[in-house]
Structures are given as C-alpha cells and as structure tokens.
Design brief:
Residues 475-495 have a biased composition (Low complexity). With 503 residues, the protein is mostly helical. 81% of the residues lie in helices and 2% in strands. The protein has a three-stranded antiparallel β-sheet. The longest helix has 62 residues, at 72-133.
C-alpha cells in the first residue's frame, strides 16, 4: 500500500526526536561522570597535601633534615627565606616599639608645657576681663551693642511674621482678576487717566471689591518685606561696627597684658601635639601589622610553610604509587601507609571514571552524528517537496526499516536518501488527468467531432460570461472609480468670545 509523503516525514521527525533524546541522555551521563571524576581529583589533591604535611609537620631545621633527599634543597631554600624575613620583621618591630616609646615621651613633655601655658592664659584672661569691666567706655559700647542686638532680633522676628502673611495672603490678590484689572490701570494713582463710561465702570468695580483697602493691603504685602530687609541690614551693620570697636578695645588691652603671645604659643603647641598624635597613631598601626606578620610566620599555616608543603605535594604527585608504598613501608608511622593506600584507591577510581567518560564521549559523538544524519534526511526531504499532498511512495520503501539500518550503522545517509528518491512518486492533478483523457478521446474520429463541438459551445459560453461580467463591473464600480457626493462643510472662522471668558 502506498505511503504518503507526510507519513514518511513524520517517521523521520520521530527518529530525530529519539536521536536527540538519546544524545541528551548521554550528555547528562557524561556530565555526571566528569563531576564525579573532578571530585575524585580534588580528593586526591587533598590527600597529597595531607601526606606532604605528614612528612613535613613544621618548617624547621630538624624537619628539613628528615624530608626526602630529592626535596631537601627546595625546602631548605624556603626555610632560609622564612628565617631571613622573620629577622627583618623582628628588627622592624623593635624599631617601631622604640619610636612609639619616644613619641609617647615627647607627647607627655609637650602636654606639661601646654598645661603651663594654658594656666598663664587663664590668669591673663581674668585680668583682661576685670580691666575691661572697669572701663566706662567699654561698658557703654557693650550696652549699645546689647540694645542693637535686641532691636535686630525684633526686626528679624517681625520680618518672619510679615513673610508668613505674604505667603498666605498675596496669592489671593494675584489671582483676583478684578483687582489685577484695576491695579494694572493704576486706579487710585495720578497715572489713572480713564474718563466717561470707563471711569464709571471702574468705580463700580472698585466699590464691588473695596479696591482702596485692598490696594493698601496689596502694597503693604508687596513693599514692606523689602523695606524691612533693608532696615535689618542697616541694624546688622550698626551692630557689627559696635562689635568691631569692642574687639579693637579688647585686642589693645590683650596686647598690653601679653595675652596675644600666650595664645600664639598655645596654638603652636596644640599643632605640635596633633602632629605627634598622628605620628603615634601611624606607628601603633605599623607595630600591630608587623607583629601580626611575625605571628603568621610562626604559625604552622603561614605562607612559607604553605609554599614548602606545595613543593612536597608536587614531588609526591610526580612519584609513582609503588615508590610511595615503598617509602611508606620504611616509615614507622602508620599514617603515611593509610594515606598512600587512599591515594592508590583514588587513582584506580579516577582511571575507571576516565575510561567510562571516554566510552561515553564516543557514544555521544555517535549519537550526535546520527542526529545530524537524520536531520540531513529531513532537510533533503523537505527541500525536494516530498511532503507535498500529491507525493507518495510505493510499497518497496519501508521507512522504519531503512531508518533502523541507519541507526544500526548498516546504511549511509546519502545512500538512504537515494533509496528514498527512487521510490518517490507524484500523483497527477486534475488538469493533467483531464488533458490526458481529452488527448485520448481526440485520437478517434468521433472524438475529433466531439472536440470541435465542445470548442464552439465553450466559446459561446465564454462570450456570454464576458458580457455578463462587464455588465456587473459597470453596475458595481470599484473604490478607485467610485466618487462620493457628500457636501463639504465650510471651515469655521474664530470670532467672538473664543475662550468663553469674555474680555
């Protein structure tokens, strides 16, 4: 029984899906194998580090003499660099502690001097205050400055109240259209020049909103704050002048008593103290850092010890397992025997997982090649339009068996494609079938007569159909020939109160 092209394509698509599922499953298995192998490799590295630490428990002259001869030069070099660095750090730490002690002594001496000078400042300041308090001119200036300060505070407080009123009340005047209309016409001022009917209307509007009173309030809110600011600036300037006179009088008496020199000494010694405190803080930080680095060197997990263990680990990694077993057997400690046995087991497991991974890798390549081969068949099938509705295949094509041979490796994709092409056929359409029948009928004498009669009849029918189609075309014009008779509306012109607000 023939098979349609769509059924054959469905079988090929199903084979593609199965091949992709098999490929995805192999990829998942490959990832799991690689993850397990990586975990074993990491475990092997940790075991090598444990074995190296077992052979080198600490970095000292005694342990260096006990390590393998192959690694002794490298370990001894690390030990020498560690001891040299330790000596450098200890010398630096001792120097920093000495500097720290000297800075503390200098700071203590400076504090004593500063206390003495501060005592002199307090004594002279008291004398200055008593002498100025007994000066009538200074007392008068002080009273004037106090009064000026009171007046300034009152003015600033009044300005705050006025500004609050401006914020609360001025917007109402600015939003009032009637008030703004009269204000812009300068009503109530010499500049107002309206006459006749306009003047009567303005008076009527003025009485409606009580414009004279509103104008006074508006001018107060608009002008008074700025005038008050000018007044405050004048009072502040007067106060500053009084304070300058008081300060000059104070400086004169201070210079006579020698208080200025004492204050300069205090300022200079406070700057010296700040500098000493900063140096001391930096020295303390460096001392702590140096001490921490020394402790890290002495620690069993310090950087030099880690470097020595890494040298040992690389040597053990390059050594064969049999040699490691022989060295461990010579040692009385059972720990290295256990670690070497663990290494041997891990090597066997890693080797087994790598073999499995290689096998999965080959299977994965074959699965990918198979998926590409079937995908190639599907592309060729669709490119040749074998999935058309008139395409079919004869009974000699068993697509499932052919695909199974391709999956088993018993068939090449190009040869399978040629096999599919050989058994593909295309069913004729109705035009080709009718043409064949007419050609067969025309071969007989009666067929010739029938053909001529059909031609004449068909021509008449076509002419009548053409006439009817033309009449229909004229009765129903297309959108390109149809013209609307809708009247056009004139464009309105703007006039009158277009905003509906009047003037």
């Amino acid at each position: 029984m023939p098979t349609s092209g769509s059924e054959v394509l469905r079988e090929i698509s199903l084979a593609i899906q199965n091949a992709k599922r098999q490929r995805d499953a192999l990829q998942s298995q490959q990832r799991e194998l690689l993850q397990q192998s990586d975990a074993l490799v990491r475990e092997r590295g940790k075991t090598l580090v444990e074995l190296a630490e077992n052979y080198l428990p600490e970095l000292s002259q005694e342990t260096v003499r006990q390590v393998w001869r192959e690694i002794q030069p490298a370990i001894r070099d690390v030990l020498l660099r560690k001891e040299m660095r330790q000596r450098e750090l200890e010398e630096e730490h001792e120097r920093l502690e000495s500097t720290q002690a000297q800075l503390r002594h200098d700071l203590e001496t400076l504090n004593h001097k500063l206390e003495t000078v501060c005592g002199q400042r307090d004594t002279l300041s008291k004398q200055l205050s008593e002498q100025l308090a007994g000066d009538p001119a200074f007392q008068q200036l002080t009273d004037q400055a106090a009064v000026a300060e009171i007046n300034l505070q009152r003015a600033e407080s009044s300005l705050d109240e006025v500004e609050h009123d401006v914020i609360a009340k001025l917007p109402a005047y600015q939003r009032s259209r009637l008030f703004q209309y009269l204000h812009k016409r300068k009503m109530g001022t010499p500049q107002y020049t309206a006459r006749g009917w306009r003047r009567r209307m303005d008076r009527w509007v003025s009485g409606l909103i009580d414009y004279p009173k509103a104008r006074k309030s508006y001018e107060f809110l608009s002008e008074v704050p700025e005038k008050m600011r000018e007044l405050i600036a004048e009072r502040r300037n007067s106060l500053n002048q009084l304070l300058d006179r008081l300060e000059r009088a104070q400086q004169k008496v201070s210079a006579e008593l020698g208080l200025d020199k004492v204050l300069d000494q205090i300022h200079s010694r406070e700057a010296q103290r700040d500098d000493l405190l900063q140096q001391l803080e930096q020295t303390v930080v460096k001392t702590h850092e140096t001490g921490a680095e020394i402790d890290k060197l002495l620690d069993s997990e310090g950087p030099f010890y880690a470097e020595a263990v890494e040298h040992y680990r690389r040597l053990l990694d390059q050594t064969q397992t049999l040699t490691l077993e022989q060295r461990a057997a010579q040692s009385p400690d059972p720990v290295d025997d256990q670690l070497v046995a663990r290494l041997k087991h891990l090597d066997e497991e890693i080797r087994r997982f790598q073999q499995s991974a290689d096998s999965r890798r080959q299977q994965l390549k074959e699965a990918e090649d198979l998926a590409e081969a079937i995908h190639y068949l599907a592309q060729q099938f669709q490119r040749a339009r074998f999935d058309d509705s008139r395409s079919y295949f004869d009974d000699q094509l068993n697509i499932r068996e052919s695909l199974q041979r391709l999956i088993d490796g018993r068939e090449r994709p190009d040869l399978l494609w040629q096999h599919i092409r050989r058994h593909q056929h295309t069913a004729p359409n109705w035009y080709e079938e009718n043409s064949r029948r007419v050609a067969n009928a025309a071969n007989s004498p009666m067929g010739q007569i029938l053909l001529q009669t059909m031609a004449h009849a068909a021509g008449a029918a076509l002419r009548e159909s053409a006439r009817r189609a033309g009449s229909r075309r004229m009765s129903y014009p297309t959108s390109s020939t149809r013209k609307t008779s809708r009247p056009s509306m004139p464009t309105p012109r703007r006039s009158g109160f277009s905003t509906r607000r009047g003037f």
